[in-house]
Batch of 3 targets.
Target 1
Amino acid sequence: MLTVPVWLFVALILAPIAAMWYVQARLLPYRKQPQDWLLVLSYRGLRPDRYTDAGQPWLRRLWLLFILVIPWIVLVAVLLRPQ
């Protein structure tokens, strides 16, 4: 049976993924080639030359989330693992 600690654990594990989806959605209007709507999902979609200057802050936030997602998941798994 799923208890509150398990739900909290799952929510904390998935929080950065939801944040990445939000930042990716905010980044989409700044693409230089609007027809490539799946571009942000590939590694080529993370290149700065693919976006306008106004989208660069969102791209940096996305890079930061990609860098921090693995340490976040490991930290949550070590500190709050369900018994």
Target 2
Amino acid sequence: MSLREHVKNGLATIVRGFLLGVGFSIAAGIAYFIAFQVAMSSMKETTSAYDVAASGGAAAKDLVLSGVEEQKHDNVTSIIGSVKNTGTKPARNVHLKANLFDHGKFVDEYSTYLSGSLAPGQSEYFKISCGCKDSPPAAHDSYKVEVSTGY
């Protein structure tokens, strides 16, 4: 075999290897694209299932606060009250937050979760601890308590 034939065979092998690599790259890219589309579709279904579950429970608008008051004892500030589920579905993952204001300016926020679920018509007491004995909350002259989540 002559040198020319060796070079020709070598170049043919390199070209075949290159084309094979390009083919595998295209196949891998298509497989990645399909896997990505399937994963995104699965995430949309999961999100939709969560939205359905969330709408299947009591909404935050169905949770009514009452008897809310601020208490200060021994440099510890707490906000207490009760929350009632006025909806027709149980409320789960109820998150209450208290925003503190000084002359209308927001200065701090504290929150708490209710454990378990709150059945329709059921009330439960809550306590939001603001700061602690060694670290009191920011100076404030008003507060606002709201239900930030609940499903």
Target 3
Amino acid sequence: MKQRKYLSKICALLFLTCVLVVPAVHAENAPPDGISQQIGVGFKVLAGDAFDGTAIGANARFWTESNFGFEVGWVRDSGGVKGSSEGVSVGVSAHFDVIPVSALYTLTHVDTESVYIRPYVGAGFNIARLSASVSVSGYGESASASDSATKVGGQGFAGAEFTFKQVPKLSFGGDIGIHRFAGDSGFAVGFQVHYYLK
């Protein structure tokens, strides 16, 4: 319960920060000449104690003409265990699919001779579908059971996107934040690569 309240406070703080700094949005924060980053597609990897293992999936990012952006994606984490003892075999498998949707905001941009850097904060919600199955076999008999549940969570994070000017359509980025997936909360580190179509 404390983790849930903490996550709610972080998301609210990030949202209020975005709202309060709207008057500070200026045209000089636009990407430099030669770099057009509005619609990007790619992949994202998440790792941390918010879930077991590493979640990998697709990701899309949209930046508006102001300093606001949006991100939507899909990641999957899966695992399983098999064992046997005295002629009885047991198998357990579980996976969850998460669709995170986040609003992004960048206060300023860093423009060097070779690299364009866009730091940002983000917050949003996610929908997670958790599925698990158990199978038991032995002594000529077998049985199995499965169950699934859908839960809503959220995330708040901060990170940066790096674009090398020699490859202006490709960006690399990372972020760290608090995520709540399928009822479990914790820190997670994300890494993403985007190719900007426009």
